[in-house]
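Dear colleagues,

I hope this message finds you well. In preparation for our joint manuscript, I am sending the DUF488 family protein (Actinacidiphila cocklensis) sequence together with its predicted structure, so that both groups work from identical material. I would be grateful if you could confirm receipt.
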Amino acid sequence: MAESISCRRVYEETTPEDGTRVLVDRVWPRGVRKADAHLDEWLRDVAPSTDLRRWYGHEPDRFAEFRRRYHAELADSGHHAAAAHLRDLAGQGRLTLLTATKDLDRSQAAVLAEWLARKA
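The corresponding structure tokens are as follows:
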């Protein structure tokens, strides 16, 4: 399943290789009209909590701790349904997790993709 999950910025052009496109940000991305996003779903319930997102602030030196805290949140019952839904989608074919974050390697989408692959 790991090879069937990828991350992209929501601002990038849609490609046929994207498969199911799911926005995993808690906040709608700036400058993107919903009609132009070409999403299959917006699953904000799987995103990091507002407190965690604000604490992280996309500071690279905080990424390891952000990753640890986000994994803990994903293990919490509040995220189970959304995470299970993403696992189901990934099992059906290609899944692209979308985010507005500029640094994909240090984004919640990357952490989520890694977590989903481990749970497969």
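For the figure legend, we might mention the following. The chain has a mean pLDDT of 91. Strands lie at 5-9, 20-23, 41-42, 95-99.

With kind regards,
E.M.
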